Amino acid sequence: MARERKIDMVILGLLSHEDLTGYDIKKRIDGAISFFWKGSFGNIYPALKGMENQGLITKNDTSVGGREKTTYHITESGSDALKDWLKEEQASNELKYETLLKLFFGGAESRGVSVHNIEVFEEQIQKDLKVLKKYSEALEKALDVEDHIYYSITASFGIETYEAYLKWCAKAKKMLKQRGGK
Amino acid sequence: MARERKIDMVILGLLSHEDLTGYDIKKRIDGAISFFWKGSFGNIYPALKGMENQGLITKNDTSVGGREKTTYHITESGSDALKDWLKEEQASNELKYETLLKLFFGGAESRGVSVHNIEVFEEQIQKDLKVLKKYSEALEKALDVEDHIYYSITASFGIETYEAYLKWCAKAKKMLKQRGGK
DNA sequence: GCTATTATATATCAAAACGATATATCAAAT
DNA sequence: ATTTGATATATCGTTTTGATATATAATAGC
Predict the structure, then answer these.
(1) Do A86 and B79 touch (CB under 8 A)?
(2) B179 CB contacts (<8 Å, ≥6 apart)?
(3) Side-chain half-sphere exposure of A149, counting CA atoms within 13 A
(4) Minimal C-alpha gap between B123 and chain A (Å)
(5) Cβ of residue A47 near strand C, that is under 7 Å?
(6) Do A25 and A39 touch, CB atoms closer than 8 A?
(7) Which residue of chain A has the CA closest to B151?
(8) What DSSP element (H or E) covers A74?
(9) Alpha-carbon gap, residue A155 to A152, rounded angstroms
(10) Where are the beta strands (DSSP E) in chain B?
């Protein structure tokens, strides 16, 4: 019980660097960490409310013209919660790959469908890899290397795995084509 | 709306090979496909009920002594639903890596904690890789190669990615150690 | 033979995440 | 001038997660 809401830690991690609005948080998640984590508005906004009630963050309402905006700031208590989580060694790592699922159960269908599914996946990865490599190169050029080491390491994780995916795509297609199609 | 329940397709995929109970289904998911998909009882049992109502599967109750058992069987309509899903080219592929998350936000903590987190991750992967390789070797020895090609391909995906993870672990640890610790 | 443990089997529940949608303002481009 | 896209917050139904409860059958150890 009293399960830990993972999104809380993501938000606290982001807020430990700078004050942000819910919308900003979504953008950050969609940016640098999107290849190993995701978040939605339906996830972020309730979490912000909950954490404000718990005193982990404080809010600051501003309005520019008719436009409202709520910026969140991490408290000392929130900072402690983040540190506690970082120290815990258990971590859940999981992937949900529908492409693999389709391939695994694809025996019921034609060989061509499986090859096509791999190609669609391959294209997506190639696109993602391109973006990630650009991001990684930009990081290396940045002056404050010490501060960016963790960003580099996570980006390198993405690059390594994406390259492994592409390697597998080539292999898988070859295997499927060699045996002729149904 | 009427969003597609992914677990339905997993269950239909498994039932397309053999009749199974809810418990069996959980075991199958925990087995060969666990490295790219997960399922829980709280997910499986309601899905079975729902699909039975939709006519995608039929149930068969038996009782051995005081023990009750419900075995499910795929219908033609269920088989069609599976085929339709296999043909759709869109597929959601996502990973949630708490280890990466901790590393990314680890700047707030000591360098040693980050290295330790990587080591914990590394050990888990080494363990999983061992299991997967054994499974893969067993597959290659199997006579009915044609039927097992899809199993081989998905297993090879796991091996490729796990090996990429290990490669990254070594690299990441080196990077963190080179720069000395806080 | 007795007992403890593990495997089989189904089920439910609160909390969390997902994904889609709604609403409205502001900035930029056509 | 208008349409498109970015900013900003919010909600809602469905699905998933993870934990827990319950009970029987089989196996292993003493």
Answers:
(1) no
(2) A146, A149, B111
(3) 19
(4) 12
(5) yes
(6) yes
(7) A104
(8) strand A67-74
(9) 5
(10) 20-21, 57-64, 67-74, 93-97
Q: Quick: pLDDT tens for A13-56.
A: 999 999 999 999 999 999 889 989 999 999 999 999 999 999 99
Chain A residue numbers with beta carbons less than 8 Å from the beta carbon of B120 are: 89-91
Q: Could you give the CA distance from residue B44 to residue B54 in angstroms, rounded to a whole number? A: 15
Q: Which structure tokens are listed for A43?
A: 């996830």
How confident is the model over A45-75, as pLDDT tens digits?
999 999 999 999 999 999 877 788 999 999 9
- The 8-class DSSP code of residue B108 comes to G
Average pLDDT, chain A: 89
This prediction's pTM: 0.91
Q: How far apart are the first and last CA of chain A?
A: 51
In the numeric block, which tokens belong to residue A158? 């993405």
Amino acid A46 CA to nucleotide D11 C1' distance, rounded Å: 10
Task: Give the C-alpha separation, B157 to B155, whole Å.
Answer: 5
Task: Count residue pairs from A and B with Cβ separation < 8 A.
Answer: 210
B93 - beta bridge partners?
Answer: A97
- Report how far residue B151's alpha carbon sits from residue B139's, in angstroms, rounded to the nearest whole number: 8
Look at residue A126 and give its three-state secondary structure.
helix
In the 8-state DSSP scheme, what is residue B124? Answer: H
Give the one of B82, B100, B154 whose C-beta lies nearest to A100's C-beta: B154
- Sheet architecture: strand order including A57-64: A20-21, A67-74, A57-64
Bases on strand D under 7 Å from any protein CB: 7-21, 23-25
Give the model's pLDDT for residue A2.
47
